[in-house]
Structure of non-specific serine/threonine protein kinase:
Amino acid sequence: MSDIPTDPMLGRLIDGRYEVRSRIARGGMATVYLATDLRLERRVALKIMHGHLADDAAFRSRFIQEARSAARLAHPNVVNVFDQGQDADMAYLVMEYLPGITLRDLLKDYGRLTPEQTLDILEAVLSGLAAAHKAGIVHRDVKPENVLLADDGRIKISDFGLARASNNNTATGQALLGTIAYLSPELVTRGVADARSDIYALGIMTFEMLTGEQPYVGDAPMQIAYQHANDTVPMPSSKVPSIPQELDELVLWATARDPEQRPRDARVMLDQLLDVGSMLRPAAAGAQTMVMPRGGQSSGVLLGAPVSALTAEAETQILGAATLVATGPGAPNDLVLPGGGTVPNGTVLAKKTRGRKTRGYWLFALVLFLATLVGGTGWYFGSGPGSEVAVPSSLVGTTPEDAAAQLLELGLIAEPGEVYSATVAEGLVVATDPDAGTRLAQDSVVTVIVSLGLQPITLPTLAGLSQADAENAITGLAAVVGTIDPVFNADVESGVVIAATRESDGGDVSAGGGYFEGLTVNLVVSLGAIPAVAGETVQDATAIFADKGLLVTRGEESYHDSIPEGDVIRGTAPEGTIRAGATITLTISRGPEPVEVPNVVGMGWSEGKQALIDLGFELSYNPGADLVAALLKITSTDPVAGTSAPRGSTVTLTGQI
C-alpha cells in the first residue's frame, strides 16, 4: 500500500471528465483505476495503457479498434465499455465498474467448485461469449482473471477483444504462465484464433473449476504450450471421481485438439450446457446461494446452486424466501427473514388476522385499477408512441441501401458504419448496432456496419530472416503461414528464408509490401550446403548424408593421385532443387593411375632421370652419381622397362661411366 499515495495519476482529471480516485489493479498492458465520471456522476473503471505501449502507433491503433469492437457488445454478462479516448500521451478505456472479486480469487479461496456452481458460472460466461461470437468478436484471453463476480451477484466477462493487442507486449513470469495455461493448440502452433479457441480456453477453465488445478503444468511456458499442442486434456473425474460423466464429456468436447471437433461457437456449447444442467440439477433446487470469501472479505458471489452443493468452508445465505426455523426454547418455528432477522411466530399470526379484515375493501378497487392500466398499456405499446420493433437479422449480407430501406419500413433510422472483415465481402453489411433481435422504439437509430473487405497489412522483407522470425512477422500481421519447403542451398545459411510466395497464385512476396489480412504465405527455407565428403570412406560419407536426410548410391570408380583406393572422391547431387530424400551419387577412388616404366637404359644419367620424373615416378640411386652425371649412362632400372607401376612409386637406377 505504500506506493499508492505516490501514484501520479491519483486525483488527476483525464480528458476533462474522469477524475481518478484510486488504483484497482496493474497488469502487463495497462493500469486500472477507479474514477468518477463528472459528466454523468457515476463511478467507472478507467483503464490506462502503459506509456511505453502508447508510444507504439500500431499498438495504439489496434487498442482503439478493439475497444470500439468491445463497445458494440451490450449484454448483461459482458462488462460494458462506455468510452475510449486519448489524453495527451495516454490512451484510455472507460468501462463499467463492478465491485467484487474475480473467478481466480474464488478459486484461490475454495480450491475447486461444485458441479452446480460450475454450471452457473459457465452459463453466464457462455451467454456473454455467445453475444461476442455472434458479433464476430473473438475474446482470445478467456481465463479466470477475466471473469468478474460482482457483489450484487452478477457474473460478467471482461477484456473483450483486447487480448489480441496485448500479444504485442513482452510480458513474462506469472502473467505469461497464466495466459499460456489456456491457449488452444492452434494458437500455440500457428498463431491462429477463432471462436473455437475461446471454447478451448473455456474448457480448460471448466477443468480448473471442477478440479482446483490446471490440466497442464510446467516449469517453463514452452513446456505448457507443448502439452496443449500434443496432449489430450484428461477427464476431470480422473482428479475428482465424484464429477458427473456429463461434465467429463463437456470438457473433452470443448478441449479437443482439432478445432473441427469442438463446438463451433459459444451458442452451441451453451445449448448443450443447458441440457446438461437440466439433467444434473435436482428438480426442486430453486434456492440460490451466496458464497462469501474467507477472511472477512465483503465481496460475495451469487450462484444458483442448491445449498447442499456448497463447500464446508463457505458461509451460506438462502435468498429470496423466508424460512421457518426453531431459534430457541421460547420461540419455536420463528420466521427467518431474507435479511437475517427473525419475527416470532405469534406476531406473524396476529398480522395475518388483522389483514383479513381490511383486504376486501380495497380488492375491488385494485381490480378496476389494473383493468384500466392493462388497457392503457396495451394501447401505448401496441399502437401508441411506446411501440417497439426488433432489429431484423436479414440485414447481414445485404447492401447498405437494402438495409436502410428495411429499417425505414420498420420506422427505424439507418446510420452508416464501417469495419474491416475477413468473412463478409466488401460493400455488404457485416452487423448492426444494436444487434439483430434488439427491440427499439420508433425512430431509433441503428448503425449499419458495412464491410471494408480485408484489412490492409504491410509485410516486411522475409528473405534473409530466420524461419522463426519470418513466421512471427506473418502471424503478427494477421496473415497465415502456409507450407514450409526446406531445400539445400550453398549460398544461404541453414534455417534462413530463401523466398516467400502467396499460396493463392504463387506470386513472390520476398521483398514484402502491401497485402491483406488472411493472406497465406509459403516459405522456402535453406538447409545449408550439401556436405563435402572428398577423402571420406564410403561408410562415413553415407552416414554424413543420412544425417541430412539424403540417400546415396555408388557410382563410377576413378583413378586419383591423392585419395586412397576405396575412398570417396566426390558426391554428385541431381540437377535442380535438392530437398531431403534426394539421392547423391558417390564417385569412388581406384587409387593412383598405373604408368609403364620406360626403357631408359643406355640414356645419359640426367636425361633418363628426367624421363622417369616426368612420368610421376620417385627415384632411388647413389647420390654420388649426380656429381659425375655428365659421364654416366643408365645401365639398369628396377622395376625393368615395360613394367606397369602406380604413379608415384619408386624406380631404382644404376649407372656406369
About this structure: Residues 35 and 234 are 44 Å apart (CA to CA). The domain at 13-96 is CATH 3.30.200.20 (Phosphorylase Kinase; domain 1). Residues 345-382 form the longest helix (38 residues).
